[in-house]
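In this section we walk through a basic example: taking a raw amino acid sequence and producing a predicted 3D structure, encoded as discrete structure tokens. The instruction is simple. Fold the sequence below.
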Amino acid sequence: MSIVKSNHCVFDTHYHIVFPVKYRKALLEPPITRAIREIAAAMTERYDVWFEQLGTDGDHIHILCSFHPKYSGSEIVGMFKSITTKQLFKQFPELRKELWGGEFWSDGYFISTISEKGSWQQVERYVRNQGKTKQTEQLRLL
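The resulting token sequence is shown next.
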């Protein structure tokens, strides 16, 4: 994504957002991840937000996105969590058995701005490759 021209502003913003599934449950299996991608594509059509990469690693999601400056990062996170939760519970009713209380995502999140000029490619590659590498056993000191 490059410079976007809107009615009253021009912008080139990129954000890396990360947040976990409620209770850190590893529920982000391929069917759910596909559904999240479809929901994100529908959000792009309706709102001024562009999801450039989505990567999941079992119990959390990484999002590389750009959005109109009229939104704050917390508004985008809230919007994404709200819409995906509603749609996922509708498409996968069995998720309600795993997660009680009507929440799919944890409350907290991480957000960082990303520059195309600096670490953009590195973060994009990292997000794209989420969940594709095998878990390796951690080395023990003793």
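Looking at the output, two observations stand out. The CA atoms of residues 47 and 99 lie 28 Å apart. The longest helix spans residues 73-91. In the next section we compare this with other chains.
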